[in-house]
Design a protein that fits this description.
The protein is of the alpha/beta class. Helices cover 28% and strands 27% of the residues.
């Protein structure tokens, strides 16, 4: 298995996805879009993972590589290859499929529950309710033919699936204590008190068990999109 990663900033990496890839014997390549916008051909990888970042998918004027990235994401989804989009990555998936991405009613930063929306045999099913890590201010409309997988009180469209192997997650299941610390170090200016924004103290006091729980759920998502016979 060859996993290709779209990385938008140095401080948002694979987190728990990296050891999962190692456990699968996968090779991992990365396009670091903050350095170069060179993208592989579809034949060069098996799985695409689009990570998060503080920019907007609508920033094409200042970040022109977004146009090619969206086209690449759409082509990968259409090819039927496994695709996972996380936060900005999910918004890129939605935008590439023609859906609108825009500022949400609420910023959502911290640990808040998401609730499962889908109980169908043809899609990934989240637990009825699970507490996950969020860091986002924008949201998206569902792409055409997408299945709505999860929602939260602050943000209705939290996860979706397109086809058999493409899943977009507005939240972060890959987050580890180290990756959470990295985001805090670079984005703490966003912690403006609000209903769905936790303080730095709250974020830093989370027990390790909570990270282990979301990382296990991420493994389930990855196993689902890479399953054989889909």
């Amino acid at each position: 298995m060859h996993i290709h990663v779209l990385q938008h900033v140095p401080f948002e990496g694979l987190g728990s996805i990296f050891p999962w890839g190692q456990s699968q014997g996968a090779t991992i390549s990365t396009t670091k879009l903050f350095e170069s916008a060179n993208l592989p051909t579809l034949s060069e990888f098996d799985v695409l993972i689009a990570l998060g970042g503080p920019m907007s998918v609508n920033d094409e004027a200042s970040l022109p590589w977004l146009r090619d990235e969206k086209r690449f994401v759409r082509e990968t989804i259409d090819s039927g290859k496994p695709v996972l989009g996380i936060c900005l990555g999910a918004q890129l998936m939605a935008s590439s499929l023609g859906a609108r991405v825009y500022p949400g009613t609420n910023k959502e930063i911290g640990w808040f529950p998401v609730v499962s929306c889908a109980q169908r045999s043809d899609c990934f099913v989240f637990p009825d309710e699970t507490e996950v890590f969020h860091w986002h201010g924008e949201t998206f409309d569902l792409p055409a033919d997408a299945i709505h997988l999860a929602k939260s009180e602050a943000c209705f469209h939290q996860a979706f699936q397109v086809g058999a192997r493409a899943i977009g997650l507005q939240f972060h299941l890959e987050t580890t204590p180290q990756s959470a610390a990295d985001i805090l170090s670079n984005c703490r200016h966003e912690l403006v008190p609000a209903k769905f924004v936790q303080s730095e103290q709250e974020l830093r006091s989370v027990p390790a068990s909570r990270y282990l729980a979301i990382n296990a759920l991420m493994e389930n998502v990855l196993s689902y999109i890479t399953r054989s016979g889909a």
